[in-house]
Design goal:
It is a single chain. It is built from 20 helices and 23 strands. By secondary structure, the chain is an alpha/beta fold. The strands form six sheets. It has a seven-stranded mixed β-sheet, with helices on both faces. A six-stranded parallel β-sheet has the order 15-14-16-17-19-18, with helices on both faces. β16, α17 and β17 form a beta-alpha-beta unit. α1 (about 10-20) packs parallel to α7, α3 (about 55-65) packs parallel to α5 and α16 runs parallel beside α17.
Length: about 575
């Protein structure tokens, strides 16, 4: 198979894993890495799964590697934090079958809560890092990562960024390599990291990294492109593309292996150029090491540590030139907002009425922090809503949190919320946890999880029952309520936030964007009954707007008949036109 095709960076990574003979893939969805697993699931030769979180995904891949097959875990930057525990340890133990972690960083913070640099994690964990600069390299480097993993007995990180993950490029697919399974050999000294063994393995890891750094001087993925020697640039990944566009005549050392660094190659390149720049997005990871070797370089003193780079940024910083760009088209601001018919909006509208505060979490419902709802006060990371509410109660007592609830989605609850809720039970906490169950992992594109009853391949499986799970923990007060049952939800929230005990409210209503979702119909406004009170507009449904005459209007193309506006109207000025069987409203 030598025909060229255009592939998304994430699709190219999946193709590379397929070609490398990978047999097991595990991941938790998270932008910008999500599509990797969705593409891998199309290859029947690979077992692929959505794991409940990144730590589990990493451990599944580790288990497959120990058993003797090539395995891969994929996750976004902050997911690497969740997977750090097994990652740091398997670096000491090494591998059997090739083991690769694909970590997708997010310069510019397009879809994350921070802008961390996975290369810094890799340095601390002593794990080598490959960084492709286009889709074809994404395919090739992924394959190569498995070879390096087995050659050097180490897990390998393939680092991507949002720009690479979600851009497209020409790829030249190849046939799958059928890699024989490696026999499992029991080796306690290598694989059981009790202190006496780990001390010896640490020495092995240091030697391995030193050897790889020396060998990397000959790696084809680290290449020197000599042109004009007045300017020399060391770069890698997507920034390489900006360098070639902005400074086509400059000499370049393009690094494919960014950790460990090929010291001798870098020293040789530095001697051949007059002025040496290091161009890398985010942290000065390469720069700091090169400076430590006594090599004079120019780096973050003229470049930013924030956000994405661009060709124009490099022209301005290095050449003191700037190509004037056309003024961007003036378009109306589009603030982030929950979709029409979103069940979270209904829950938040009740919370706003009751003046409740939300200890927040990561998901679509994070939008509950912004106007017009504004009920979420903070969020930290996946699963933290429950733990932070617990900490508030232990700090200030039940009286302080009587107007607070923890907000967490169904997928996030299964990700890391379970342990937090268990902690509340164990430590005799009070407080109310609201699990917003919309039957999907909505924020990242509607992936299934352990409570949906479907696997990554869409096969039917046992669906974890969140209600029974909470009851099994010993929580006496657990309730399920329709997210659009405004009266029932209001009564529950009033009752449970005042209760001197731990309680869980599960609001159930499917995401309105699910394929299986069937709209009830369309809501319409009866202008003759409308009192222009604006109550229907308070939740901020994008399908509704106030007309010049003060009477709300509903966009029939956007409305899916959730009836939130109708239920908020005391004057029966809004009604539902039911959807006809097999047709439209």
């Amino acid at each position: 198979m030598n025909d060229s095709t255009i592939m998304l960076g994430n699709a190219a990574i999946a193709q590379g894993a397929y070609e490398a003979g990978v047999k097991v893939s595990a991941a938790y969805p998270g932008t910008p890495s999500t599509e990797i697993s969705e593409y891998i699931a199309k290859y029947p030769e690979i077992y692929a799964e959505w794991s409940p979180n990144e730590k589990v995904a990493m451990e599944v891949a580790i288990g497959a590697s120990i058993a003797g097959v090539r395995a891969m875990a994929s996750m976004k930057l902050v997911g690497v934090n969740v997977a750090a525990d097994p990652l740091y340890s398997i670096a000491y133990a090494g591998v059997n079958g090739g083991l690769v972690l694909v970590a997708a960083d997010d310069p510019g913070i397009y879809s994350s809560q921070n802008e961390q640099d996975t290369r810094m994690v890799a340095r601390a964990a002593m794990v080598p890092v490959l960084e492709p600069s286009d889709s074809e390299e994404a395919r090739i480097f992924t394959k190569l990562a498995f070879q390096y993993s087995e050659q050097y007995d180490t897990p390998i990180i393939v680092r991507t960024t949002t720009r690479l993950s979600h851009s497209q490029g020409i790829v030249h697919p190849e046939t799958r390599e059928e890699v024989p399974d490696k026999p499992y050999v029991r080796n306690i000294a290598k694989n059981v990291l009790m202190p006496a063994n780990a001390q010896k393995r640490h020495i092995v890891v240091e030697q391995r990294m030193k050897q790889m750094a020396e060998d990397a001087c000959q790696f084809e993925i680290n290449r020197v492109e000599m042109r004009d020697t007045k300017i020399g640039i060391i770069t890698s990944g997507i920034p390489y593309q900006y360098v070639r566009e902005a400074l086509p005549n400059a000499s370049v050392l393009k690094l494919g292996l960014v950790h460990p660094l090929p010291k001798q190659l870098i020293e040789s390149f530095a001697q051949q150029v007059d002025t040496l720049y290091i161009v890398e997005e985010l942290e000065p990871v390469i720069e700091e090491q090169v400076r430590s070797w006594g090599i004079p370089v120019i780096g973050k003193e003229i470049f930013t540590v924030q956000g994405e780079y661009s060709a124009n940024l490099l022209r301005k910083a290095i050449l003191h030139q700037e190509i004037p760009l056309a003024a961007p088209a003036e378009v109306p601001q589009r603030p982030p907002i929950l979709c029409p018919g979103c069940p979270h909006r209904s829950v938040f509208s009740v919370m706003k009425k009751l003046k409740l505060h939300g200890a927040g979490d990561i998901g679509c419902y994070t939008l509950g922090a912004v106007a017009p709802l504004g009920v979420m006060d903070f969020n930290v990371c996946m699963g933290a809503s429950i733990s932070t509410l617990h900490g508030m109660e232990k700090a200030k007592g039940k009286a302080f949190i009587q107007d607070w609830v923890a907000l967490i989605g169904d997928s996030t609850f299964l990700h890391t919320g379970i342990n937090s809720l268990m902690n509340m039970v164990y430590n005799k906490a009070t407080g109310t946890v609201v699990i917003l169950d919309n039957s999907t992992t909505g924020m990242t594109g509607h992936q299934d999880h352990a409570a949906t009853g479907k696997t990554l391949q869409g096969e039917t499986t046992y669906a974890i029952n969140i209600y029974h799970l909470c009851k099994a923990m010993g929580i006496e007060h657990v309730y399920e309520v329709d997210a659009f049952d405004l009266e029932g939800l209001e009564n529950l929230l009033k009752q449970e936030t005042k209760r001197d005990a731990l309680s869980v409210i599960i609001t159930k209503s499917p995401c309105a964007l699910l394929k299986e979702f069937v709209p009830k119909g369309k809501c319409i406004v009866h202008a003759d009954k409308c009192k222009k009170c604006g109550q229907c507009l308070i939740p901020g449904c994008p399908a509704m707007r106030r007309q010049e005459n003060g009477i709300p209007a509903i966009d029939a193309n956007m409305c899916n008949g959730c009836q939130l506006c109708e239920k908020r109207c005391k004057f029966e000025a809004i009604s539902l036109i039911p959807r006809k069987e097999g047709g439209k409203a």
